Amino acid sequence: MERLAFTYQCAPARVVFGRGSLSHLEEELLALNVRRALVLCTPEQRETAESVAARLGVRAAGVFDRAVMHVPIETAREAVAHARSVGADGMVAVGGGSTIGLGKAIALEHSLPIVAIPTTYAGSEMTSIYGITEDGIKKTGRDARVLPRTVLYDPDLIRTLPLKVCVTSGFNAMAHAAEALYAHDRNPVVSLMAEEGLRAMAAALRTLQEAPQSDAARERGLYGAWLCGTVLGAVSMGLHHKLCHTLGGSYNLPHAETHTVMLPHTLAYNAASAPDAMSRAARALGTAENRVPQAIHDLMRATGAPLALKELGLPMESLDRVADLAVQNPYPNPRPLDRAALRVMLQRAYEGAPPLP
């Protein structure tokens, strides 16, 4: 049995979960003493953001709809300037990781409180992790200022989320939980939440495969996303997130889809060096310990998830550079970083081949 020795610190986030949670928005802003909230979104979610702003009335400082993947530094600077120009004293981030990431970039500069309203399963809303891309390199960090002060999880807002986005953002969330299970700074509470997050999200995705409009499954997925996002914010991530940040920041690959494609392969790379993590993941997925990466790959096939990096637009000639970047700066990971083995893994992920046993 694994010897117990750990440190546990709970992040000071407030979560309101349940159908109709959006109706609590004004009182949550009042509790934070926010009088002029800037509503953030992507261009695609402008209509939803405008309805939120209309709900707030005079408490809304307008809508900023320029959020994009990987938070380019140019967009971050524009958003910071806009928030200052409209006199915003808080933000409401309506959307997925791109929108919440933009809110974090503003908070990093101005320390404005964020109320997050997730509309995907990304999980960024539960972390103090931020990421900003400059000159093709995505730089990440942790800062207490960027942690959303309140998160409103309203399953009603997930009802119209396209199935494709449910699937990829769901696997993105599962990647957080998977790496939390073998994090060097894990603890018993985080491991319990990670296992339950994997279980809930896998169950939701299986049901959505058969019944894409199932409200119960979409709600279960949102519950899983909360758990997976919480553990992402509580412990360190390893190889999987390092590779995905490199692929996304350097080659502008779509965030959730990249996490999806890479997940079974990074799990396979680390499996033999993380037996306790594989045991917990196997329980959550209802499979054998030696089949966890393959079980993830099988679920990806069943749900129509992307399987190959080449599908996402990655040039094959970039694989060598990605492997080089992956070993450039050492970071904690269950298995030592072997450039040759990583290059083989990346090739299989590029081609969409099953993970190595």
What features would you highlight for this structure?
357 residues; alpha/beta; six-stranded parallel β-sheet; two-stranded antiparallel sheet; 13 helices; 50% helix; globular
Describe this structure in words.
- This protein has a six-stranded parallel sheet, sandwiched between helices. Strands 6-7 form a two-stranded antiparallel ribbon.
- Strand 6 (129-134) and strand 7 (137-142) form a beta hairpin.
- It contains 13 helices and eight strands.
- The radius of gyration is 19 Å and the shape is globular.
- Helices cover 50% and strands 11% of the residues.
- The model has no long low-confidence stretch (mean pLDDT 95).
- It has helices spanning 25-31, 46-56, 73-85, 97-110, 163-181, 188-210, 215-234, 239-251, 255-270, 275-285, 292-303, 319-326, 339-351; strands at residues 14-17, 37-40, 60-64, 90-95, 114-118, 129-134, 137-142, 150-153.
- The chain starts with 13 loop residues before the first strand and ends in a 6-residue tail after the last helix.
- It is of the alpha/beta class and 357 residues long.
Strand content: 5-15%
Q: SSE string, helix = H, strand = E?
A: EHEHEHEHEEEEHHHHHHHHH
Cα radius of gyration in angstroms: 19 Å
Strand order of the largest sheet: 1-8-5-4-2-3
Instruction: Show unreliable segments.
Output: none
Oligomer: single chain
Please work out how many helical segments DSSP would assign.
Answer: 13
* Largest sheet entry: 6 strands, parallel
Shape: globular
